[in-house]
Specification:
34% of the residues lie in helices and 16% in strands. It is built from 13 helices and 13 strands. It starts with a helix and ends in a 23-residue tail after the last helix.
């Protein structure tokens, strides 16, 4: 046997093994373990046009275009999916050391005690958060304490704290009441930590999985992306929050949502390690646009199962929808929203009299 023949046989062994491994790998990749992609963007962006009821994320087999296999994912995994109104998602995997105290904060700054009393919609929102999140405490930061029937109903579950009237920040005047509330919520979260919720947030899932990061906000995706401050989850003195407050040095009261929505989104692109960003389905979808409000309050074509919470957008929805909402209408009318919140009516007192119901809570 010549040297060349011996050398050829030696090289044939690894060559043959390589061919076998390549063949097996190709077969597994293309026939046994198909490639999947998340059909998430179109699933949400086109649901209005296609009438899709969103129940769970669909994983589509790219090779066969078959959608016969469905995989359940939990709400946190869904909220962390990039591509749902959050192309630059700096999503993080939470470590398992709880950083955020399980306490709720509400801010009620109606400086005119006769303006829009604490009503049924407020009671519904507060009840949803207290019974779903099950906080250690629920702090109610107020200027004028409400007197309505609905407030008296929820008051035993609150720790009430009179707050200051905000007139300026870093020497910049603050006159818009929503901006005053923005400042109070940030100061409270900086000092105590916890979960801040607007008074019109319906909580649909426990927030336990969201307490393991320093700071969490969710995408609002309407006319451009932002991080809406209607839901903020923070540990005390979280770096992102303290920077955000410092940026109020150039606050302008005439800019409606720059400091509260646009600025935190801009900061999230720079300080990616200091914030967990959840996509738009976590808290703020459907949005306040007319067709979205109609989807939530006047149809059965949206499923809230992948929402941690839902912002009722009371500034936009009150006159057309929320003003006429009652326990009776929630029980009897089939809408996406009513289906999601109906369970919270179980917390009404047994002697609640539907006949004397008043949406503005004036029945005493």
């Amino acid at each position: 046997m010549t040297f060349l023949q011996t050398n050829t046989k030696i090289w044939l062994i690894p060559f043959t093994l390589g061919v076998i491994l390549f063949t097996v790998g190709y077969y597994v990749n293309n026939f046994i373990k198909p490639d999947y992609h998340y059909d998430s963007q179109s699933y949400y962006e086109n649901f209005l046009a296609e009438g899709i009821k969103i129940k769970t994320l669909k994983i589509v087999n790219v090779k066969t275009k078959s959608d016969s296999r469905h995989y359940k994912i939990n709400v946190l995994q869904h909220a962390l999916l990039p591509g749902i109104g959050n192309c630059n998602c700096n999503c993080t995997v939470p470590n398992r050391t709880q950083k955020v105290p399980k306490i709720l904060h509400y801010v009620y700054l109606n400086e005119d005690p006769n303006y829009l009393p604490f009503n049924f919609i407020h009671w519904l929102a507060f009840t949803s958060s207290i019974e779903t999140i099950k906080p250690e405490k629920t702090y109610f930061h107020y200027i004028h304490e409400p007197k309505s029937y609905w407030y008296q109903l929820i008051k035993p579950k609150l720790s009430i704290m009179k707050t200051r009237i905000v007139t300026e920040i870093f020497g910049n005047p603050v006159n818009v009441i929503q901006h005053k509330s923005d400042i109070i919520r940030m100061e409270v979260l900086r000092d105590f930590g916890g979960i801040y919720l607007d008074n019109d947030i319906i909580v649909l899932q426990p927030f336990d999985d969201l307490l393991y990061n320093d700071f969490t906000m969710g995408i609002e995706d309407t006319w451009g992306q932002g991080l809406c401050d209607a839901v903020i989850i923070s540990r005390p003195f979280a770096p992102f929050l303290t920077r955000w407050i410092q940026n109020y040095k150039d606050f302008n009261d005439h800019h409606w949502n720059y400091h509260s929505v646009q600025l935190p989104y801009q900061m999230s692109q720079e300080y990616v390690n200091d914030i967990q960003v959840l996509n738009k389905t976590a808290f703020f979808w459907p949005t306040w646009m007319d067709e979205h409000l109609d989807l939530a309050f006047n149809s059965t074509n949206y499923n809230f199962s992948n929402n941690y919470a839902y912002h009722m957008w009371s500034s936009a929805s009150y006159g057309k929808y929320l003003k006429y909402m009652s326990p009776k209408s929630i029980k009897s009318e089939e809408t996406s929203f009513n289906r999601a919140v109906r369970k919270f009516l179980n917390y009404l007192p047994k002697d609640f009299n539907e006949e004397t119901f008043d949406i503005d809570g004036k029945n005493n």
